């Protein structure tokens, strides 16, 4: 469902954007290419500038309307040169922040004009968002209600039809002159009592009950402590779908130490701020998204003044999703770096997807993160028994091991288990 | 030839006491209460059906409820802003300095958790001692103060500063004296701070004193050569070492450094060249150095002076009076032999004495000058600055305070109310001082008497430096922000003296950039990286001795006569506790003394014959009354090798205000120390009286019997030179019967093994503490040690044997030992014993749940979470190296002195599981380090190099006695070591195929040295 609605929403969104942009293009006085402007803006400007609020750089829409185009083109192309030429406005403008603006000498006049045009008009996303939201919710609620209604209606229809058939049958029989003997009204209670006196039935019933309860119990026991699907409520509604899926941010950008250390680590908030200093997802009324505000609050960051207040810092207490017991040692680097090829092959991960998906599942579609794999020892061992690591035969570290092991030379499949990967002490110490 | 020597672990075994025999028959140390249980009424009564159902119902309900929680919620709290250099899961290392020794501090996400050797320290990269290893626990000590104190009330820095500055101004106005009292301070920056302080308050003087003093040597050098310094001793250049009660491998001046030097002439490499130094030790109590000596002679304290006079007379042919050892024929014979050999080894010999008497040390200087030690084995030009204390200066301070001349006194890293001999005189005098400030980290004995306690952080939270040898500097840098509201003493002094620089970090840095770095051409960053700088050493000059010795000799004779009473008491520094400053460290309290194997206590050591003569049994509590009237009650420990007519008592115990772990452990022996002829004397005489009470000491080694098996092997140097395999038993291999002929362990990649050189191991026990810290090994406390439940994965077994036994009698049967003689002359072997990682491990076959199994790289794995605690494995282990967790030591109020609080738990190594109650544990060969080393090679796509992985015990060893590595690599150090003909395997005859090879102990003895014991 998630996927379908996502695709639906995406499609709808792009249709709207396209429609509005084309409308603007036709209607606008300037014949600039807003689409190109948007692309360029996202690529070159968005890391420091937002359209309608101040970030590392000032809000762009008012600035674009304030200054004339020729000046803007000079500034954007090389503000240092402009300031060096003694332009007073430019020198004043540079006082906005100690951070110097990057020069873009390779941009053509047309390209800059496109950016300016886009920046003047701004992103018409709010209208689009509201539209899709309504449509989206409508679909999901309606469909649910519809299904329930259909089921109820069909039950009623069936019952009515049944009655009608019975009636008709009786009528036919009466017509044929057969006396319909009304069924004896044996009371229900007596019937059930009779049933319970039937030893065969009781025996059968008890056996069934034991089998059902037993299998529930058995399954329950097996799954004790297995938390597949565990999806706790997190202090910040962070969406992996948005970040890793739609925005295609690499796993390592945030989970930096996964490729170096045993811990993949939850990113510290300074990593979030790399983007979220600018990306504030303001609502129509100019309010910063409440989830992003949580980051700011934790850091004591004031978005308007762009200052940090150390005294207001308070840590974010995430709820841990993937919990290995303390006596099991797991090292991310060992798996995602050393064992990457084997794991990709074993789990059938697409070359375009990160190797992380092998255990963490399709993180790029998870609105909120949940535990995908069982993380049981059986699950670990299975992979250690089956993954093929013979690709390591040219690796200097394995040369020693492989030299000792004739089988590999013969080109047979080698698993971590064959190199001692099933031994207790490899993970439990 | 197989060794016929008889060894014994303790006197119980030696005497074959009925208790010992009885205990040995039992499988368990304590009798199991099976019969009590069986005969109890509970078994004969019929359990009522209702009770049964109640219990069943409750149990079912409780289990269901307990199982209800779907998933325990674990919080995961990342850094708000992660410091660039911190990667969670990967440790960072910072150089620092502990007590003058350069070290590396391992930190994990900001917590210092382990001290390692700094490999950049050149000649000073010599392993670390037990104190340094244990020091990380002190950082997390909950007995420390959390805020500064003012008039014994919790206060803050503003108030303390205002108070101290006010009082200082008054002091200055009055023109009275201000004194800064410290133990030896070898930090140039701290000294500069005190000098600046003195510039602001000109009546200030810095008084240095050491609880265990070396004033005698410094004064003697001043008298003899005009240089008031501790020399740099070069034990590595000495082929012949003669020590008179100097415990230079254990506690004397710079033991780790000396151990490394000493062992370089005695280890396998040296032996392969056919070279080994010779070591004679004359001493009263059995010291660690004494146990390592080739020939050890017990002498009384009163005989030490005369012995030196005899030696001097023998060497120089002069005729100083007083050199008669009429009552100690053996020592006399030995001295003549030593004199002869010293003359043969001129320029390659060294004589040292542990005495703090100026006259004695002057005589030692004369002897050393006569044998040409100066410029070779003794270096007066690159002096050692570890100890600079002046006993007389401290005595003068007490007088000044008594006369009311002192207006303010500051105590920096010193605790005189505990560790000076006349503590009472000190405290009375102290009461007359208007301003008393302590820089202690806790309200200790002295701080408790002070007006303000300006709490100082540990070295792990501080900036600083050290200058242990002239021209050799090392840096102290913080590895964590101050945990409590503490402030460095130097910082406080800077603030109180209104220094232009108010920040001690800047002060240290300026000091280095001005006074040190320009001369060595390095930058501050270089130093923070390497930790040390050393200038070029001066050439050691040779010195001639020109003093007349008559006055010296008569002074020696007078002091010696004063000691000639029935019991001469030798006061010494013990290896675990040293001077008692770290008495609240549970790791050190539980570290067994390397010789007596006693934990958590001090005692009075008596020779076996002495105890017999006086009618005392082991553990009898005696009242020991010293000549100055001080008396304590101490239990008796019967110590073979102790000189007759003497007793030994360790310092460092009996603290009253140090904290949970160390309060009232043992008795304080500092009051026995006396002050005469300008220095402190660690000797007294005493009368003993039995109190009738008993106090069972918590010893670790008497716990098991080795049934007289041939597990220690040794040879004399002479035999070794003829046949390197001498004494190793390698010529008489047992016929091997193998139960597992088909099921061989395949060693695919690595085969982790270890080689331990018994000739290099001095028994210093630093490895035990290193192992404790690395592997999160719990401390169990005195009572549990008595029950044989200590948890140390690595222990050092100490075996005694006789010097005078006849050879050729076959292997010792236990009952034979009792008929052998002369307990005064025993020799000792130290044997580190840890899991042997047997290829045919007996523990593995008896485990019903396969919790302990073998790995393909030669290790014996222990899966704690699989263990159900049958303890079969421990019973079946021939080496007795498995340890059982009787309690949750980290979460049980009965073990309140160690990990039982969240704060102290920060010292735990996150890569090693903490074990819970009911599971077995043992040495894992630091498998976490093996795995980490392998991973780092894999990530770099390179082959694993020999030396990439070092176990904690190996890394810390100053003697390099432990070599760990891959046996499958023929060029690895360990493979080379194991190819030595000296290698034997303990209990190899039972064919468990242990992975740890031991190298025979070699003693540099011959018929002449044997003669002295006859």
Give the tags.
heterodimer, A: 429 residues, mainly alpha, Cytochrome Bc1 Complex, Chain D, domain 2, 4 domains, 21 helices, 56% helix, 1% strand, extended, B: 1014 residues, alpha/beta, 6-stranded mixed β-barrel, 35 helices, 30% helix, globular
What does this structure look like?
The complex is a heterodimer of chains A (429) and B (1014). Chain A is an all-alpha fold and 429 residues long. Helices cover 56% and strands 1% of the residues of chain A. Chain A folds into four domains: 2-24 and 139-222, no CATH class; 45-123, Cytochrome c-like domain (Cytochrome Bc1 Complex, Chain D, domain 2), CATH 1.10.760; 240-375, no CATH class; 393-426, no CATH class. In chain A, strands 1-2 form a two-stranded antiparallel sheet. The two termini of chain A are 44 Å apart. With 1014 residues, chain B is α/β, with parallel strands linked by helices. Chain B has a seven-stranded mixed beta sheet, sandwiched between helices. Chain B has a six-stranded mixed barrel with strand order 22-27-24-26-25-30. In chain B, a hairpin with a 2-residue loop joins strand 6 (149-150) and strand 7. At the A-B interface, helix 13, strand 3, helix 15, helix 19 and helix 21 of A face strand 2 and helix 32 of B.
